[in-house]
Structures
1.
Amino acid sequence: MTDASAPRRPLRFNAFAMNCVSHINHGQWVRDDTSQTSYTDLETWTELARTLERGYFDALFLADVIGTYDTYRGSRDTAVREGLQIPVNDPSLLVAALAHATEHLGLAFTQSVLQEPPYNFARRLSTLDHLTKGRVAWNVVTSYLESAARGLGLDGLPLHDERYERAEEYTDVLYQLLEGSWEENAVLRDRERRVYADPARIHDVHHEGRFYRVNGPHLSEPSPQRTPILFQAGSSERGREFAARNAEAVFLGAVSPEGARTQVEDVRARAVAYGRQGGDILFFQGLTLIVGSTEEEAERKLADYREHTSLEGFAAHMSGSLQLDLSQVDFDAPVGEIDTNGVQGFVRSLVEGAPDKTWTFGEVLRARAWTRPVAGVPERIADELERWRDAGVDGINLAYVTSPGTFTDFADQLAPVLQKRGLLKTAYEEGTLRQKLFGRGDRLPASHPAARHRRG
């Protein structure tokens, strides 16, 4: 486990975004003070990346989804009207351009193990790691929409546990390609002998598994990190096991610091059981931070944002995630009148968690439609962030309400206070993203399962 006597490092901060119109806080794209409809404009993204670097963010984390949210009302129409993660562009294609626009910012992108054979994806990872000088990260996901399976030509979405079995094999194939195919000294660049690389030091990968077959060498020479930083989000039993074996950073959606502590301790204990160190995994809690110069201003901003929240957009999003059509629940019905025996767990949790049983279902849904909002002056927000750090959280995954407004407020108003409190770094470390996040070497540690594929 981690050393309790060690000095506390500042929190790490990721900006949570997506290459689409409406990511999480649905309905805000209609506002005049957000650039969400300019998501196809590269300048919008480069300006955001520079703002994040000015605010000492560790990384821009780009979410992604394959498929459409078509469970709500039995079609994708609501998602299309709301711009709810459709249209959506490939996040990986932003990485190289944003690396050119910045010097230190990490660049994480999401891709499902169902999307592409690992042989080709390994080349994409190495290419991006080269172009970013070691600042790229991959968020490992397994997909959860039936529409994704249809679009990818599968007979159906594999069951939950099978998707994680695929992920285990997929990542193992990647480790073989990225870590074991090219020896460390395979590239010679010998001009006199006209030998760029030594064929004897480049090895074919021979993999015959349940889901994947590979017979050949990795196509790219070793990049600064070889294997990029590995992000993962999953709170199920299989998700936690996968994280304990493979992840370097885990996203949390805990409802309280105490809940976060429970998950952090659980996954770290599992990692130690697999021979890893507790500190090999960082944990990022998802929050929305709303900064005001006074408490009254912050509350006014929060109320204004909530007025723009689209309940239909949020309901369509959650319906797809849960494979449960929330249109069957009346938004205007007081939660005290909803029959909890007739609805599934998520709806029941909304009903039971309502502070006032006279609230309508729509009001409760609106209250839950946010990624843990914290509104206040910078000092109050710093107090709240300190609570999360004290619970064992290593970083914050900051969801936006308006872009770049949420991130500009962080850089201009919140960052100076956090730096004074020791909650945010005052300078970037040199080196790769792994060096910056962990303060150690560029490569995965020897305790990681990828290391067993290394030669020599």
2.
Amino acid sequence: MGEKKGTVIGEALTLAALVSYQDGTVASRTLIDKQVGTVTVFAFDEGQGLSEHTVPYDAFVQILDGEAEITIAGEPHHLSAGQMIIMPANKPHLLRAVKQFKMLLVMIRS
């Protein structure tokens, strides 16, 4: 896998296969972590989520598997595999697994 052990650089991979569901929790795997941004894959068990928070930059989310409810500034959005949404900077948002779901999160900090 990749140039360094455990990396994904230079490999053709299936995003949803990079992180596994774990009972009663949220699992994640960071693929890129740079000063300018991050790329992370998450797996949420049913009923799990992230509490309401804000970040100072836009965040791109693509649902890879399952179903999620993403609430932005009080407005809920129901997303399923293949759909995406951009959570705008400085707007409160939260995520909840309607069913188990996996997502790709891309945050660009500049």
3.
Amino acid sequence: MSLPTPRPHTRGQIDILTELEPGVERRLDRHLATAREWFPHTYIPWSQARDFDGPLDGSPWRPADSPLPDAVRDALVVNLLTEDNLPSYHHEIHGQFGREGAWLSWLHRWTAEEARHADALRTYLHARRAVDPVRLERDRMHHVSAGYRSEHSDVPHALAYVMVQEMATRQAHRNTGRACGDPLGEQLMSRIAADENLHMLFYRDLCADGLDLAPDLFTQAVTDVICDFTMPGHGIPGFRTRAARIAVSGIYDLATHRDQVLRPLLHSLRLMERTGLGPRGEQALDRLGRHLEQLDAQAERFRQRSSAVRLPPRT
């Protein structure tokens, strides 16, 4: 299989990949020193599992088997199927900035850590009989067969996207665990969220380096990503309905995205306080400010309507 053609990563005479690589090396060393080893099999309630129908002649799955609320099941499925598309994410990131050196070392480490998440989540869901395993596998085949293609064609936009996406994924896992009502499930989701937090810190700090290196370019990239953000799992079958149920439950809604994802990132980057920008950067900050005001209004409208929303039951 041929590798993707590298996408543009220069701005004038600045080679962004080369300029940022010392920061990649430092953040990778920090990550390796900080990341805690963990083992998915220790979070699985093996003694509570039962054989399914099929070659083992066990019991077919029934909705009554699941101990989890419907919205939590939706969130777990969305989280899992998003993690399942790791081969496409690896391919996309490799094409953007993973060709050699510290960038490639980081990409391989990130991929190895992310692969644990899908393994652990799927095994937990099967052991708990939390979701329909046949539907889950059919949805996985559909989603992974469709693949994922990044809409961001340069390094600043790609870095800004993975920064926001990792933060959003961290919160989605963490909030799902808190809502599941299962101490073991909460421990597992918290463990996965801790991985995602370290990944977010890696990308966030590289974006901070980029803002120092090319302020206008990275300010525009962060603004573009925030204003047009979609989760990588938006192609999952039934995503819109599932996302609506998840939002109404309070696991992840507009207010969550604003308060637990965007505001902490913007505060850490001190983006809204940045001075000395050129016209492109100033225009981007103005656009970002308007977007945040609109998000406030949308979150308030959603809060007012959410109690009256009637959604189709989970099947």
4.
Amino acid sequence: MQIAEGDEIAFSELFRFYYPRLLHFLGRFDQSSANVDEAIQETFIRVWMARDQLPSIDNFRAWLFTIASREAIALIRKHLLTQKTSEVFLKNQPSTGPETPADIAQTGEIRRLVEEAVARMPPARRRIYRMSREEGLKPAEIASRLNLSVNTVKNTLVTALHDIRKFLSAHGHTIIPLFATLLFNNFFKGE
């Protein structure tokens, strides 16, 4: 076989011969012409990379179609995984619009700084903050559990929020009201 010796003209003829057949065959796997074309392209790349093995292949057509079907299945799996990952990611994101990598990095930095600020709080304030933020408890529920007045819990949460803002500001982060709402939501739900 001339392709095994690196003959690109013979390879082009092989491609032109099998392309419409593979197009029809792979169209049954995936209706997307872009995915089918990508699978065919990957198939012929694999053929070209394995060209030195071509003389030892008894049934080239079966071998080619096996590679093509595996490529199509791999692409379908890849696209399904990407779609599923995207759906999970989007489901867990606040609906504030698309984020850039810089936004994601800044949000991570702010979360780290918030955790550091919380760790520096006096134990009682830290406990009330965590009960509110991490456990999602309302001020009345916290007050009941800790045998405190609701106003004491609310004032402690306001102080905790002030501490966090001050700590973030000291580290060069200004919290705008909208971001503060997103970051510190659930503080006073169900007052």
